[in-house]
Amino acid sequence: MSLIEEIGQKIDKKKAEKSAKKMAKGQFDLEDMRDQLLQMEQMGGMEALMDKLPGMGQIPQSVKNQVMGTIETKKMVAIISSMTPKERTHTKLIKGSRKNRIARGSGTQPQDINKLLKQFEKMQKQMKKMGGGKMQKMMAKMGGMPQDGGIPDLSGMKLPDMGGKKFPF
Predict the structure, then answer these.
(1) In terms of Cα–Cα distance, which of 20, 155, 31, 139 is closest to 81?
(2) What is the largest CA-CA distance in the chain?
(3) Is it true that domain 3-127 has CATH number 1.10.260.30?
(4) 78-126 per-position pLDDT tens digit
């Protein structure tokens, strides 16, 4: 089964649509991050996804483990699940005593909470860059996503983050 077919079968389309709308508005939160991590796990984790990409099967196991292992994903899900719903949507609330409670609840250390929050902030900034209609404009330039699950022709598309340079192919 191809990667595209597997993704189509295993992801929750309603959650994915809801998450995509939130991302387009720049409203990505820890609930969305947890949903993405869980969906990735349903597909066999990052390592299984990497193995299905052309040329990635030859990458040494040690390098694959460094990218993101199953243990790391489960730890991140446990941390997010140990937060209150309000903490998941308002990360600024998570200070010292809350970090200690979340760490105890998830079986991790407060520095693991800090690491997750920093990673989340980076992802959130990226989503905000894509938000504000930029993602919709980019999709419109690509002609939208084809109904047949194929990949659109990107050869003539200019990328704003690459200084207007075109794809090299």
Answers:
(1) 31
(2) 52
(3) yes
(4) 999 999 999 999 999 999 999 999 999 999 999 999 999 999 998 888 8
CB count in 10 Å sphere of residue 6: 16
Q: Which two tokens stand for residue 151?
A: 């990949």
152 close to 142: Cβ distance less than 8 angstroms: yes
Q: Decide: 114 and 122 in contact? Cβ < 8 Å.
A: no
Give the residue from 116, 57, 126, 51 showing the smallest Cα distance to 81. Answer: 116
pLDDT in tens, 158-168: 555 545 554 44
pLDDT reported for residue 145: 46
Ordered by start, the domain boundaries in the chain are 3-127
**Residues 22, 125: Cα–Cα separation, whole Å:** 13
Distance CA 69, CA 107 (A): 17
Q: Which two tokens stand for residue 144?
A: 């939208």
- Other beta carbons within 10 Å of 93: 12
Contact 19, 106 (CB under 8 A): no
Token pair 């390592």 is at which residue? 47
Has this prediction a pTM greater than 0.85?
Answer: no
